[in-house]
Amino acid sequence: MVFDSLVLKPMRVAGAAMLSLALLTGTTMLAGEHGFRAEAQEGPASVADLSSKLIDSVVNISTSQTVGGSDRNVPRPDLPEGSPFQEFFDEFFDQNKDGAAPQSRQVQSLGSGFVVDEAGIVITNNHVIEGADEVAVNFNDGTKIEAEIIGHDPKTDIAVLRIDPGNKKLKAVSFGDSDGMRVGDWVLAIGNPFGLGGTVTLGIVSAIGRDINSGPYDDFIQTDAAINRGNSGGPLFNMKGEVIGINTAIISPSGGSIGIGFSIPAKLAKNVVNQLVEFGETRRGWLGVRIQSVTDEIAESLGMDRARGALVAGVIEGGPVDDGSIEPGDVIIEFDGKPVETTRELPRIVADTPVGKAVDVVVIRKGEQMDIKVTLGRLEDSDELAMAPSGDEKGDMPADQADTIELYGMTLAELDDSQREAFKIEDSVERGVVITEVAPNSAAAEKGISPGETIVEIAQEAVANPQEVVDSIEELKSENRRNALLMLAAPTGELRFVTVRID
Q1: What average pLDDT does the structure give for the chain?
Q2: pTM for the whole structure
Q3: Is position 157 annotated as part of the catalytic site?
Protein backbone atom coordinates (compact mmCIF):
# COMPACT_ATOMS: atom_id res chain seq x y z
CA MET A 1 0.00 0.00 0.00
CA VAL A 2 1.38 3.41 -0.93
CA PHE A 3 0.62 6.52 1.08
CA ASP A 4 1.04 9.87 -0.65
CA SER A 5 2.47 12.59 1.58
CA LEU A 6 1.53 10.64 4.70
CA VAL A 7 3.46 11.30 7.89
CA LEU A 8 3.07 8.85 10.75
CA LYS A 9 3.82 10.38 14.15
CA PRO A 10 5.42 7.99 16.66
CA MET A 11 3.33 7.21 19.72
CA ARG A 12 4.56 6.64 23.24
CA VAL A 13 3.12 3.15 23.46
CA ALA A 14 4.47 0.69 20.92
CA GLY A 15 1.26 -1.28 20.82
CA ALA A 16 -0.76 1.87 20.16
CA ALA A 17 1.59 2.81 17.33
CA MET A 18 1.13 -0.61 15.76
CA LEU A 19 -2.64 -0.33 16.14
CA SER A 20 -2.58 3.12 14.50
CA LEU A 21 -0.61 1.72 11.57
CA ALA A 22 -3.01 -1.21 11.34
CA LEU A 23 -5.94 1.14 10.89
CA LEU A 24 -4.15 2.76 7.96
CA THR A 25 -2.99 -0.44 6.29
CA GLY A 26 -6.19 -2.46 6.72
CA THR A 27 -4.81 -5.14 9.04
CA THR A 28 -6.28 -6.42 12.25
CA MET A 29 -4.13 -6.31 15.40
CA LEU A 30 -4.70 -9.14 17.87
CA ALA A 31 -3.43 -9.01 21.44
CA GLY A 32 -1.24 -11.84 22.68
CA GLU A 33 1.17 -12.55 25.47
CA HIS A 34 3.99 -11.00 23.46
CA GLY A 35 2.01 -7.91 22.45
CA PHE A 36 0.06 -7.28 19.23
CA ARG A 37 0.32 -9.37 16.08
CA ALA A 38 -1.02 -8.51 12.66
CA GLU A 39 -3.65 -10.54 10.86
CA ALA A 40 -4.91 -9.76 7.35
CA GLN A 41 -8.37 -8.22 7.44
CA GLU A 42 -10.89 -9.34 4.86
CA GLY A 43 -11.81 -6.37 2.68
CA PRO A 44 -15.09 -5.94 0.85
CA ALA A 45 -15.74 -8.77 -1.59
CA SER A 46 -16.01 -7.90 -5.27
CA VAL A 47 -19.40 -6.53 -6.19
CA ALA A 48 -19.06 -7.47 -9.86
CA ASP A 49 -21.59 -10.32 -9.72
CA LEU A 50 -24.06 -8.22 -7.72
CA SER A 51 -23.67 -5.28 -10.10
CA SER A 52 -24.25 -7.37 -13.21
CA LYS A 53 -27.37 -8.82 -11.61
CA LEU A 54 -28.84 -5.42 -10.77
CA ILE A 55 -27.71 -3.07 -13.50
CA ASP A 56 -30.49 -3.95 -15.95
CA SER A 57 -33.11 -3.02 -13.33
CA VAL A 58 -31.73 0.51 -13.03
CA VAL A 59 -32.78 3.03 -15.67
CA ASN A 60 -31.94 6.53 -16.81
CA ILE A 61 -34.78 9.03 -16.75
CA SER A 62 -34.73 11.73 -19.41
CA THR A 63 -37.25 14.54 -19.44
CA SER A 64 -38.01 17.50 -21.67
CA GLN A 65 -39.92 20.66 -20.94
CA THR A 66 -40.89 23.50 -23.24
CA VAL A 67 -40.01 26.86 -21.74
CA GLY A 68 -41.29 29.98 -23.47
CA GLY A 69 -39.94 33.49 -23.08
CA SER A 70 -43.45 34.69 -22.30
CA ASP A 71 -43.19 32.80 -19.00
CA ARG A 72 -40.85 35.44 -17.63
CA ASN A 73 -42.52 37.99 -15.43
CA VAL A 74 -39.41 40.10 -14.91
CA PRO A 75 -39.46 43.21 -17.10
CA ARG A 76 -36.44 43.82 -19.27
CA PRO A 77 -34.64 46.96 -18.06
CA ASP A 78 -34.07 49.90 -20.37
CA LEU A 79 -30.36 50.45 -20.83
CA PRO A 80 -28.62 53.46 -22.32
CA GLU A 81 -27.32 52.99 -25.85
CA GLY A 82 -23.87 51.44 -25.88
CA SER A 83 -24.12 50.13 -22.33
CA PRO A 84 -21.50 47.45 -21.54
CA PHE A 85 -24.30 45.35 -19.96
CA GLN A 86 -26.34 45.23 -23.20
CA GLU A 87 -25.05 41.84 -24.30
CA PHE A 88 -25.56 40.35 -20.84
CA PHE A 89 -29.20 41.41 -20.63
CA ASP A 90 -29.88 40.36 -24.23
CA GLU A 91 -28.71 36.87 -23.36
CA PHE A 92 -30.46 36.73 -19.98
CA PHE A 93 -33.84 37.75 -21.37
CA ASP A 94 -33.44 35.68 -24.56
CA GLN A 95 -34.12 38.70 -26.69
CA ASN A 96 -32.53 39.99 -29.83
CA LYS A 97 -31.01 43.44 -29.89
CA ASP A 98 -34.06 44.69 -31.73
CA GLY A 99 -36.22 43.68 -28.72
CA ALA A 100 -37.94 40.75 -30.48
CA ALA A 101 -39.91 38.39 -28.27
CA PRO A 102 -37.89 35.42 -27.00
CA GLN A 103 -38.43 32.04 -28.63
CA SER A 104 -39.60 28.99 -26.71
CA ARG A 105 -36.97 26.32 -26.14
CA GLN A 106 -36.65 22.74 -24.96
CA VAL A 107 -35.03 22.11 -21.59
CA GLN A 108 -33.60 18.62 -21.04
CA SER A 109 -32.78 16.97 -17.73
CA LEU A 110 -31.50 13.60 -16.64
CA GLY A 111 -31.99 11.44 -13.58
CA SER A 112 -32.14 7.83 -12.50
CA GLY A 113 -34.78 5.31 -11.52
CA PHE A 114 -35.41 1.60 -11.04
CA VAL A 115 -38.01 -1.03 -11.95
CA VAL A 116 -40.07 -2.45 -9.08
CA ASP A 117 -42.67 -4.33 -11.12
CA GLU A 118 -42.15 -6.30 -14.32
CA ALA A 119 -45.49 -4.94 -15.52
CA GLY A 120 -43.77 -1.57 -16.02
CA ILE A 121 -43.67 0.35 -12.71
CA VAL A 122 -40.60 2.57 -12.31
CA ILE A 123 -39.61 4.67 -9.29
CA THR A 124 -37.70 7.96 -9.37
CA ASN A 125 -37.54 11.32 -7.58
CA ASN A 126 -40.29 13.89 -7.92
CA HIS A 127 -37.76 16.62 -8.66
CA VAL A 128 -36.47 14.60 -11.63
CA ILE A 129 -39.82 14.69 -13.46
CA GLU A 130 -41.42 17.80 -11.97
CA GLY A 131 -42.81 20.10 -14.67
CA ALA A 132 -41.81 17.75 -17.50
CA ASP A 133 -43.83 17.60 -20.72
CA GLU A 134 -42.27 14.30 -21.76
CA VAL A 135 -40.61 11.57 -19.72
CA ALA A 136 -38.65 8.64 -21.15
CA VAL A 137 -37.09 5.61 -19.50
CA ASN A 138 -33.76 4.49 -20.95
CA PHE A 139 -32.47 1.00 -20.23
CA ASN A 140 -28.91 -0.25 -20.03
CA ASP A 141 -29.23 -2.07 -23.37
CA GLY A 142 -30.19 1.16 -25.17
CA THR A 143 -33.97 0.61 -25.19
CA LYS A 144 -35.97 3.82 -24.75
CA ILE A 145 -39.65 3.78 -23.71
CA GLU A 146 -41.96 6.74 -23.16
CA ALA A 147 -43.34 6.90 -19.62
CA GLU A 148 -46.52 8.11 -17.96
CA ILE A 149 -46.44 9.79 -14.54
CA ILE A 150 -49.06 8.01 -12.46
CA GLY A 151 -48.33 9.74 -9.16
CA HIS A 152 -45.85 11.97 -7.38
CA ASP A 153 -45.32 13.24 -3.84
CA PRO A 154 -43.30 16.44 -3.33
CA LYS A 155 -43.18 15.98 0.45
CA THR A 156 -41.03 12.85 0.17
CA ASP A 157 -39.67 13.60 -3.33
CA ILE A 158 -40.95 10.33 -4.80
CA ALA A 159 -42.57 9.77 -8.20
CA VAL A 160 -43.99 6.66 -9.84
CA LEU A 161 -43.91 6.10 -13.61
CA ARG A 162 -45.61 3.51 -15.78
CA ILE A 163 -44.22 2.20 -19.05
CA ASP A 164 -45.50 -0.31 -21.59
CA PRO A 165 -42.61 -2.78 -21.95
CA GLY A 166 -44.15 -4.50 -24.98
CA ASN A 167 -42.02 -7.54 -25.78
CA LYS A 168 -39.18 -6.39 -23.53
CA LYS A 169 -38.80 -8.49 -20.39
CA LEU A 170 -38.14 -6.25 -17.43
CA LYS A 171 -36.06 -7.14 -14.39
CA ALA A 172 -37.57 -5.83 -11.17
CA VAL A 173 -35.88 -5.26 -7.83
CA SER A 174 -37.55 -5.28 -4.43
CA PHE A 175 -37.37 -3.10 -1.35
CA GLY A 176 -35.39 -4.37 1.61
CA ASP A 177 -35.32 -3.66 5.33
CA SER A 178 -33.88 -0.17 5.72
CA ASP A 179 -34.44 -0.30 9.48
CA GLY A 180 -32.00 -3.20 9.64
CA MET A 181 -29.15 -1.17 8.15
CA ARG A 182 -26.39 -0.14 10.53
CA VAL A 183 -23.76 2.53 10.30
CA GLY A 184 -20.79 0.90 8.56
CA ASP A 185 -22.81 -1.55 6.44
CA TRP A 186 -21.74 -1.75 2.79
CA VAL A 187 -24.11 -0.23 0.20
CA LEU A 188 -24.01 0.00 -3.57
CA ALA A 189 -25.47 2.77 -5.75
CA ILE A 190 -26.24 2.49 -9.46
CA GLY A 191 -27.35 5.46 -11.52
CA ASN A 192 -26.80 8.03 -14.22
CA PRO A 193 -24.33 10.61 -12.81
CA PHE A 194 -23.67 13.48 -15.21
CA GLY A 195 -25.41 11.46 -17.93
CA LEU A 196 -22.96 8.55 -17.62
CA GLY A 197 -25.51 5.74 -17.44
CA GLY A 198 -24.93 2.43 -15.71
CA THR A 199 -22.45 3.79 -13.17
CA VAL A 200 -21.80 1.69 -10.06
CA THR A 201 -20.37 3.14 -6.84
CA LEU A 202 -19.65 1.47 -3.53
CA GLY A 203 -19.61 2.85 0.00
CA ILE A 204 -21.01 2.43 3.48
CA VAL A 205 -23.91 3.74 5.51
CA SER A 206 -22.41 6.82 7.14
CA ALA A 207 -25.39 7.73 9.35
CA ILE A 208 -29.09 7.04 9.72
CA GLY A 209 -32.09 9.18 10.60
CA ARG A 210 -30.67 12.36 9.07
CA ASP A 211 -32.88 15.47 8.99
CA ILE A 212 -31.66 17.89 6.29
CA ASN A 213 -34.72 20.17 6.46
CA SER A 214 -35.93 19.23 2.99
CA GLY A 215 -39.43 18.24 4.06
CA PRO A 216 -41.70 17.31 6.98
CA TYR A 217 -40.77 13.61 6.89
CA ASP A 218 -36.97 13.74 6.67
CA ASP A 219 -35.37 10.49 7.87
CA PHE A 220 -32.52 10.01 5.41
CA ILE A 221 -29.83 7.38 5.18
CA GLN A 222 -26.48 9.10 4.74
CA THR A 223 -23.87 7.34 2.61
CA ASP A 224 -20.39 7.98 1.27
CA ALA A 225 -21.06 5.97 -1.90
CA ALA A 226 -20.43 8.48 -4.69
CA ILE A 227 -23.71 10.19 -5.60
CA ASN A 228 -23.67 13.03 -8.13
CA ARG A 229 -26.06 15.02 -10.27
CA GLY A 230 -28.02 12.52 -12.32
CA ASN A 231 -28.02 9.89 -9.57
CA SER A 232 -31.27 11.35 -8.21
CA GLY A 233 -34.01 8.74 -8.13
CA GLY A 234 -31.61 5.83 -8.38
CA PRO A 235 -31.48 2.94 -5.93
CA LEU A 236 -29.17 2.34 -2.98
CA PHE A 237 -28.72 -1.42 -2.55
CA ASN A 238 -27.63 -3.57 0.35
CA MET A 239 -25.32 -6.50 -0.30
CA LYS A 240 -28.35 -8.77 -0.87
CA GLY A 241 -29.36 -6.71 -3.89
CA GLU A 242 -32.38 -5.18 -2.12
CA VAL A 243 -33.26 -1.49 -2.41
CA ILE A 244 -32.84 0.07 1.01
CA GLY A 245 -32.91 3.69 -0.18
CA ILE A 246 -33.70 6.09 -3.03
CA ASN A 247 -30.82 8.47 -3.69
CA THR A 248 -32.16 12.00 -3.62
CA ALA A 249 -29.74 14.67 -2.37
CA ILE A 250 -26.10 15.55 -1.78
CA ILE A 251 -24.17 18.17 0.10
CA SER A 252 -21.54 19.61 -2.19
CA PRO A 253 -20.05 23.09 -2.56
CA SER A 254 -18.72 22.12 -5.99
CA GLY A 255 -21.71 20.19 -7.34
CA GLY A 256 -19.77 16.91 -7.31
CA SER A 257 -19.63 14.13 -4.74
CA ILE A 258 -17.69 14.85 -1.56
CA GLY A 259 -18.91 11.70 0.13
CA ILE A 260 -22.09 13.10 1.69
CA GLY A 261 -25.19 11.74 -0.02
CA PHE A 262 -28.71 11.08 1.24
CA SER A 263 -31.24 8.39 0.42
CA ILE A 264 -34.93 8.08 1.28
CA PRO A 265 -35.21 4.92 3.41
CA ALA A 266 -37.13 2.02 1.91
CA LYS A 267 -39.49 1.87 4.88
CA LEU A 268 -40.75 5.38 4.13
CA ALA A 269 -40.68 4.92 0.35
CA LYS A 270 -42.65 1.66 0.23
CA ASN A 271 -45.78 3.13 1.78
CA VAL A 272 -45.68 6.19 -0.49
CA VAL A 273 -45.06 4.09 -3.61
CA ASN A 274 -47.92 1.70 -2.80
CA GLN A 275 -50.35 4.61 -2.35
CA LEU A 276 -49.23 6.32 -5.56
CA VAL A 277 -49.65 3.09 -7.51
CA GLU A 278 -53.07 2.36 -6.03
CA PHE A 279 -54.57 5.84 -5.79
CA GLY A 280 -52.32 8.12 -7.84
CA GLU A 281 -51.89 10.23 -4.68
CA THR A 282 -50.86 9.88 -1.07
CA ARG A 283 -53.40 9.31 1.71
CA ARG A 284 -51.72 10.18 4.98
CA GLY A 285 -53.06 10.02 8.48
CA TRP A 286 -53.81 13.33 10.21
CA LEU A 287 -54.03 14.01 13.92
CA GLY A 288 -54.88 17.71 13.70
CA VAL A 289 -52.50 19.19 16.26
CA ARG A 290 -49.71 21.74 16.21
CA ILE A 291 -46.63 20.57 18.06
CA GLN A 292 -43.33 21.88 19.29
CA SER A 293 -40.20 20.42 20.85
CA VAL A 294 -39.93 19.49 24.50
CA THR A 295 -36.80 21.21 25.76
CA ASP A 296 -35.05 20.39 29.02
CA GLU A 297 -36.61 23.52 30.52
CA ILE A 298 -40.12 22.55 29.41
CA ALA A 299 -39.62 19.00 30.70
CA GLU A 300 -38.53 20.36 34.08
CA SER A 301 -41.49 22.73 34.25
CA LEU A 302 -43.88 19.87 33.49
CA GLY A 303 -42.32 17.60 36.10
CA MET A 304 -41.01 15.14 33.48
CA ASP A 305 -37.93 13.05 34.23
CA ARG A 306 -36.36 13.95 30.86
CA ALA A 307 -37.06 15.78 27.63
CA ARG A 308 -38.98 13.55 25.24
CA GLY A 309 -42.14 13.43 23.17
CA ALA A 310 -43.99 16.15 21.27
CA LEU A 311 -45.67 19.04 23.07
CA VAL A 312 -49.15 19.86 21.75
CA ALA A 313 -49.17 23.61 21.19
CA GLY A 314 -52.65 23.74 19.71
CA VAL A 315 -55.54 21.70 18.37
CA ILE A 316 -56.81 22.50 14.88
CA GLU A 317 -60.48 23.38 14.77
CA GLY A 318 -62.53 20.68 13.07
CA GLY A 319 -59.65 18.20 13.26
CA PRO A 320 -59.79 14.60 14.48
CA VAL A 321 -59.02 15.52 18.11
CA ASP A 322 -61.09 18.70 18.31
CA ASP A 323 -63.34 16.83 20.75
CA GLY A 324 -61.21 17.47 23.80
CA SER A 325 -59.49 14.09 23.71
CA ILE A 326 -56.11 15.80 23.28
CA GLU A 327 -55.51 19.21 24.80
CA PRO A 328 -52.89 21.95 24.40
CA GLY A 329 -50.15 21.23 26.91
CA ASP A 330 -50.32 17.46 26.48
CA VAL A 331 -47.01 15.77 25.68
CA ILE A 332 -47.41 12.86 23.27
CA ILE A 333 -44.88 10.16 24.21
CA GLU A 334 -46.33 7.19 22.34
CA PHE A 335 -48.47 6.84 19.21
CA ASP A 336 -50.01 3.58 17.99
CA GLY A 337 -47.54 1.57 20.02
CA LYS A 338 -44.51 3.48 18.74
CA PRO A 339 -42.48 5.61 21.15
CA VAL A 340 -42.15 9.30 20.31
CA GLU A 341 -38.76 10.51 21.46
CA THR A 342 -38.49 13.72 19.43
CA THR A 343 -40.96 16.13 17.88
CA ARG A 344 -39.97 15.39 14.29
CA GLU A 345 -40.81 11.70 14.72
CA LEU A 346 -44.53 12.28 15.34
CA PRO A 347 -45.56 13.72 11.92
CA ARG A 348 -43.81 10.83 10.18
CA ILE A 349 -45.43 8.18 12.38
CA VAL A 350 -48.88 9.75 12.00
CA ALA A 351 -48.51 10.10 8.23
CA ASP A 352 -47.63 6.41 7.90
CA THR A 353 -50.73 5.37 9.85
CA PRO A 354 -53.81 4.44 7.77
CA VAL A 355 -56.58 7.02 7.50
CA GLY A 356 -59.54 6.17 9.72
CA LYS A 357 -57.58 3.89 12.01
CA ALA A 358 -58.38 4.05 15.74
CA VAL A 359 -55.05 4.32 17.53
CA ASP A 360 -53.89 4.46 21.14
CA VAL A 361 -52.04 7.62 22.13
CA VAL A 362 -50.13 7.97 25.38
CA VAL A 363 -49.79 11.51 26.72
CA ILE A 364 -48.47 13.22 29.81
CA ARG A 365 -51.06 15.71 31.08
CA LYS A 366 -50.29 17.84 34.13
CA GLY A 367 -47.72 15.31 35.29
CA GLU A 368 -49.97 12.28 34.86
CA GLN A 369 -49.66 9.66 32.10
CA MET A 370 -52.92 9.01 30.25
CA ASP A 371 -54.06 6.59 27.51
CA ILE A 372 -56.31 8.09 24.85
CA LYS A 373 -58.02 6.50 21.86
CA VAL A 374 -58.27 8.66 18.72
CA THR A 375 -59.39 8.06 15.14
CA LEU A 376 -57.20 9.59 12.45
CA GLY A 377 -58.43 11.82 9.67
CA ARG A 378 -56.82 12.34 6.30
CA LEU A 379 -54.12 14.93 5.73
CA GLU A 380 -55.01 16.98 2.68
CA ASP A 381 -52.54 19.31 0.97
CA SER A 382 -54.52 22.26 2.29
CA ASP A 383 -54.48 20.98 5.87
CA GLU A 384 -52.12 22.46 8.41
CA LEU A 385 -49.15 20.26 9.24
CA ALA A 386 -48.21 19.44 12.80
CA MET A 387 -45.84 22.32 13.35
CA ALA A 388 -45.45 24.97 16.01
CA PRO A 389 -46.68 28.45 15.10
CA SER A 390 -44.07 31.14 14.73
CA GLY A 391 -45.70 33.42 17.24
CA ASP A 392 -44.05 36.57 15.96
CA GLU A 393 -47.05 38.57 14.92
CA LYS A 394 -46.88 42.07 16.36
CA GLY A 395 -49.34 44.89 16.83
CA ASP A 396 -49.14 48.56 17.60
CA MET A 397 -48.37 49.66 21.14
CA PRO A 398 -51.44 50.84 23.04
CA ALA A 399 -51.35 54.36 24.39
CA ASP A 400 -52.84 53.48 27.76
CA GLN A 401 -50.43 51.47 29.94
CA ALA A 402 -52.43 51.78 33.15
CA ASP A 403 -52.87 48.76 35.43
CA THR A 404 -49.83 46.98 34.07
CA ILE A 405 -47.15 44.86 35.75
CA GLU A 406 -43.56 44.40 34.63
CA LEU A 407 -42.18 40.89 34.99
CA TYR A 408 -39.02 39.31 33.49
CA GLY A 409 -38.89 41.98 30.82
CA MET A 410 -42.59 41.74 29.97
CA THR A 411 -45.15 44.48 30.52
CA LEU A 412 -48.47 42.75 31.26
CA ALA A 413 -52.01 44.08 30.97
CA GLU A 414 -55.55 42.71 31.10
CA LEU A 415 -57.11 41.55 27.85
CA ASP A 416 -59.82 44.15 27.20
CA ASP A 417 -61.35 45.79 24.14
CA SER A 418 -58.65 48.45 23.90
CA GLN A 419 -55.88 45.82 23.88
CA ARG A 420 -57.75 43.74 21.31
CA GLU A 421 -58.03 46.76 19.04
CA ALA A 422 -54.43 47.87 19.55
CA PHE A 423 -52.90 44.47 18.82
CA LYS A 424 -55.65 43.18 16.48
CA ILE A 425 -56.28 40.21 18.76
CA GLU A 426 -58.97 37.95 17.36
CA ASP A 427 -62.01 36.72 19.29
CA SER A 428 -60.60 33.19 19.32
CA VAL A 429 -58.29 34.42 22.10
CA GLU A 430 -61.02 34.46 24.72
CA ARG A 431 -59.01 35.12 27.88
CA GLY A 432 -55.53 35.75 29.21
CA VAL A 433 -53.01 38.49 29.94
CA VAL A 434 -51.67 40.63 27.10
CA ILE A 435 -47.94 41.28 26.75
CA THR A 436 -47.81 44.92 25.72
CA GLU A 437 -44.04 45.40 25.73
CA VAL A 438 -40.89 43.27 25.85
CA ALA A 439 -37.63 44.79 27.09
CA PRO A 440 -34.55 44.14 24.92
CA ASN A 441 -32.06 41.59 26.28
CA SER A 442 -34.56 40.42 28.89
CA ALA A 443 -35.42 36.83 29.77
CA ALA A 444 -38.62 37.18 27.74
CA ALA A 445 -36.82 38.63 24.72
CA GLU A 446 -34.34 35.75 24.73
CA LYS A 447 -37.29 33.37 24.33
CA GLY A 448 -38.70 35.25 21.33
CA ILE A 449 -41.74 36.56 23.20
CA SER A 450 -43.36 39.46 21.32
CA PRO A 451 -45.73 42.32 22.19
CA GLY A 452 -49.30 41.37 21.26
CA GLU A 453 -49.01 37.79 22.45
CA THR A 454 -51.33 36.73 25.26
CA ILE A 455 -50.39 34.57 28.25
CA VAL A 456 -53.23 32.05 28.45
CA GLU A 457 -51.80 29.65 31.01
CA ILE A 458 -48.88 29.37 33.41
CA ALA A 459 -47.85 25.86 34.47
CA GLN A 460 -51.02 24.63 32.73
CA GLU A 461 -53.25 26.78 34.91
CA ALA A 462 -55.35 29.56 33.35
CA VAL A 463 -54.59 33.21 34.17
CA ALA A 464 -56.96 36.15 33.65
CA ASN A 465 -55.07 39.19 34.92
CA PRO A 466 -51.49 40.32 35.59
CA GLN A 467 -51.71 39.65 39.33
CA GLU A 468 -52.61 36.02 38.67
CA VAL A 469 -49.44 35.74 36.60
CA VAL A 470 -47.40 37.04 39.53
CA ASP A 471 -49.16 34.73 41.99
CA SER A 472 -48.61 31.70 39.75
CA ILE A 473 -44.91 32.39 39.43
CA GLU A 474 -44.53 32.92 43.17
CA GLU A 475 -46.18 29.56 43.73
CA LEU A 476 -43.73 27.91 41.31
CA LYS A 477 -40.84 29.50 43.17
CA SER A 478 -42.17 28.13 46.45
CA GLU A 479 -42.02 24.68 44.86
CA ASN A 480 -38.35 25.31 43.93
CA ARG A 481 -39.16 25.40 40.22
CA ARG A 482 -36.52 27.07 38.05
CA ASN A 483 -38.71 27.68 35.00
CA ALA A 484 -42.24 28.84 34.33
CA LEU A 485 -44.07 27.22 31.41
CA LEU A 486 -46.16 29.82 29.56
CA MET A 487 -48.85 29.03 27.01
CA LEU A 488 -48.90 31.98 24.63
CA ALA A 489 -51.56 32.85 22.07
CA ALA A 490 -50.63 34.87 18.99
CA PRO A 491 -53.10 37.61 17.96
CA THR A 492 -54.48 35.13 15.40
CA GLY A 493 -55.14 32.57 18.13
CA GLU A 494 -52.31 30.13 17.40
CA LEU A 495 -50.79 28.68 20.56
CA ARG A 496 -47.22 27.89 21.54
CA PHE A 497 -45.31 27.14 24.73
CA VAL A 498 -42.20 28.84 26.07
CA THR A 499 -40.33 28.61 29.34
CA VAL A 500 -39.01 31.64 31.23
CA ARG A 501 -36.29 31.32 33.80
CA ILE A 502 -37.59 32.45 37.23
CA ASP A 503 -34.85 31.46 39.68
Answers
A1: 81
A2: 0.67
A3: yes
> Which residue among 153, 157, 224, 330 is the active-site one?
157
pLDDT in tens, 2-37: 333 333 333 334 344 433 434 434 444 444 444 545
Burial of 417 (0-12, 13-18, 19+ CB in 10 A): exposed
Output the pLDDT for position 22.
42
pLDDT digits (tens, 9 = 90+) for 393-422: 333 333 333 467 888 889 998 898 888 888
Give yes or no for a contact between 157 and 113, defined as CB atoms under 8 angstroms apart: no
Task: Tell me what pLDDT residue 207 has.
Answer: 95
What structural domains and CATH numbers belong to the chain?
48-67+104-282 (2.40.10.120), 284-379 (2.30.42.10), 405-501 (2.30.42.10)
CA distance 158 to 114: 12
Candidates 342, 397, 338, 334; CA nearest to 371 is 334
The predicted pLDDT at position 5 comes to 32
Q: Do 411 and 469 contact (CB within 8 A), yes or no? A: no
What per-residue confidence (pLDDT) applies to 297?
87
Burial code of 237-254, b = ≥16 C-beta within 10 A, e = fewer? bbeebbbbbbbbbbeeee
Distance CA 349, CA 359 (A): 12
Return the sign of the alpha-carbon dihedral for residues 320, 324, 325, 329.
positive
Please pick, among 51, 90, 94, 127, the residue that the annotation labels catalytic: 127
- Look at residue 98 and give its three-state secondary structure: coil
Annotated catalytic residue within 178, 232, 257, 301: 232
Closest listed residue to residue 143, CA positions, set 112, 119, 166, 111: 166
**Whole-angstrom distance, CA of residue 81 vs CA of residue 69:** 23
Task: Check: CB of residue 262 under 8 Å from CB of residue 313.
Answer: no
**Which ranges of the chain have pLDDT less than 50?**
1-34, 36, 38, 40, 71-72, 382, 385-402
DSSP class of residue 57 equals: G
Residue-level pLDDT at 39: 52
d(CA 268, CA 349): 10
Alpha helix ranges (H) inside 258-314: 266-279, 296-301
Annotated active-site residue 232? The verdict is yes
